[in-house]
Design brief:
Blueprint (H helix, E strand, L loop, with lengths): L1 H18 L3 H26 L3 H12 L9 H10 L3 H12 L9 H14 L3 H4 L1 H5 L1 H14 L16 H119 L4 H5 L7 E4 L6 E3 L3 E2 L9 E5 L5 E6 L3 H9 L9 E3 L10 E5 L1 E5 L3 E6 L1 E5 L1
Parallel strand pairs: 6-10
Antiparallel strand pairs: 1-3, 1-4, 2-9, 4-5, 5-8, 7-10, 8-9
Helix pairs in contact: 1-10, 2-3, 2-6, 2-9, 4-5, 6-9, 9-10
């Protein structure tokens, strides 16, 4: 698009340069026309005012004024002032010097504006029949010169007096056909060139628009494809995370179910033990000596998985049960305090490989992470717990290592 605009501006500039006539050329043909009209006017007026001698003194110089080498206004003014026409025609010349024309107009319009302005000053056409008689030939001569594009060269008026007005007329007649032909060519440029340039610019814009539109469509398709691919990739990752979450939940449920089964079994054993003790008390009285010799409870017991930072009292087991207990407790002399260590077997190792967070991290710090090759868990240093309000609170975590 930028290239199209640059080309269009270049063509417009070229067209402007072709159609515009230089101001210098316009000024020169204007000077020629002024000197020509002044010549005809003075030739007639000098007879009426008895200034024939004055006119004869400048006649040859005025006749040397040609459109190819026009007399400048400064030269014309000095000539009139030096030969007794200071008070009659200098004001007329000064007014003609202020004629303004548009360089961008065509030769016919410029020629008409110059001639009309000259003849409008002080009603030259009404005062001089001779000046009025050359109006149409002068108009055609100026238009022909502007159409030809040949620059004119101003002179000081010091040319040979042998050149006559008649020779100037012959030149005008010879150049008239050329003027018509060049005027036709100039008008053709004025009408056809703008249309051609507009059409060319329109075609370039269409081609560029089609190219840009195609690029936009391709980018849209690429963005759509990327969106589909990204969605598909994200969906696969989302499904993978969901599957992992489901597996973790299933494992947690299995642990809870294991704790429930363990508690049910423990409750059943206690009920059976209580029933057996009651039957023994009824049928077999205990001797006094046997009461005195009764041994205290064992200071060692087992616990299941911790909850946050404590072990619930109901997860206690006095016996080691494979797959159901994870920690072994050693009570101190103070029955409300105990040390503990991690106890592993095949079942607990299997659970640890898939989810060590719920089983290990609440009660242990580990030196490493479990892997698929983990076979056992070794306790480096025991943890410490204190019994309070029906639960064993974890005071200090155990240190373990997966091996």
């Amino acid at each position: 698009m930028k290239n199209s605009i640059a080309l269009f501006l270049l063509l417009c500039f070229s067209y402007h340069s072709i159609g515009q006539i230089s101001q210098t050329n316009i000024d020169n043909v204007k000077n020629y026309a002024i000197a020509r009209v002044v010549y005809e006017y003075l030739k007639e007026a000098s007879k009426e005012k008895n200034k024939t001698k004055n006119f004869d003194a400048i006649k040859s110089k005025l006749e040397s004024n040609k459109i190819s080498s026009p007399m400048t206004l400064d030269t014309l003014r000095a000539l009139l002032e030096a030969n007794g026409f200071k008070n009659t025609k200098l004001v007329f010349v000064d007014k003609l010097n202020d004629i303004q024309t548009d360089p961008t107009a065509n030769p016919s319009e410029i020629a008409n504006s110059i001639v009309k302005a000259i003849y409008d000053v002080e009603n030259v056409a009404l005062k001089s029949s001779a000046a009025n008689s050359i109006r149409e030939p002068l108009l055609k001569e100026i238009e022909s010169n502007l159409n030809s594009g040949v620059p004119t060269k101003p002179v000081s008026g010091k040319t040979s007096s042998n050149e006559s007005t008649q020779s100037g007329s012959t030149t005008e007649e010879t150049k008239e056909p050329k003027s018509n032909f060049l005027s036709l060519n100039f008008n053709l440029w004025n009408h056809v060139l703008p249309i051609g340039l507009s059409l060319l610019f329109f075609i370039i814009c269409l081609v560029k628009f089609g190219t840009v539109n195609g690029r936009i469509e391709r980018r849209k398709n690429e963005i759509t494809d990327l969106g589909h691919k990204s969605f598909a990739g994200n969906s696969d990752r989302d499904y993978s995370r969901l599957d992992k979450k489901i597996e973790d939940l299933r494992y947690s449920m299995s642990l809870i179910q294991s704790d429930i089964d363990f508690l049910k079994k423990q409750k059943q054993e206690k009920l059976e033990n209580n029933s057996y003790s009651q039957r023994q008390e009824i049928h077999t009285p205990i001797p006094v000596q046997n009461v005195a010799s009764k041994q205290p409870e064992s200071n060692t017991f087992y616990m299941g998985s911790p909850i946050e930072n404590f072990f619930p009292k109901n997860s206690r087991s006095n016996e080691y049960k494979k797959g159901l207990v994870l920690y072994k407790f050693f009570q101190t002399q103070n029955q409300n305090e105990a040390q503990f260590e991690f106890v592993s077997d095949e079942e607990t190792i299997k659970h640890i490989r898939s989810n060590s967070m719920e089983l290990v991290n609440p009660a242990c710090n580990s030196q490493n992470s479990p892997s698929t090759n983990t076979n056992t868990v070794r306790t480096i240093s025991k943890g410490f717990a204190r019994f309070d309000n029906d639960r064993w609170n974890i005071i200090e975590k155990a240190l373990i290592k997966f091996e």
